[in-house]
Amino acid sequence: MMLPPVENGQYIGPEPAGNLPHNELAIKFYVGDDNEPPIMNHQKVWNTFNDYMELSATITDASGILSDTLYYNTGNGWQAMMHTSFEEPNIYHYLLSELPAGATIEYYFAATDNSPNANRAELHQWQGEALVFNTLPTADATILLAMPGNRPGFQDYQNLEFPKYQAALDAAGVNYDVFNWAAYNEYSFPESYDIIIAYSNSTRNTSIHDTLSKALINFMDGGTEAMPKNVFFASDNLPSTQHALPNAKLLKKFFTAYLRGGYNVQVNTPYYGGPDGIAGPDLTGYHAGSIKGLPSSPIGTENQIIPVFSDDPDVIYNRDCPEWYANEVSNPEISSWGSYVFEDGPINGDAYSKGNGCAIWLDNLMYKSFFISFDISQFTSDADINTMINQALEWFTPEVYTITAMASPIAGGTVSGGGNYVAQSTATLTATPATGYDFVNWTENGDVVSTEAQYSFTVTSNRTLTAN
Question: What is the per-residue DSSP string for 44-113?
Answer without folding.
Answer: ----BSSS-EEEEEEEE-TT-EEEEEEEEESSS-EEEE--SEEETTTEEEEEE-SPPTT-EEEEEEEEEE
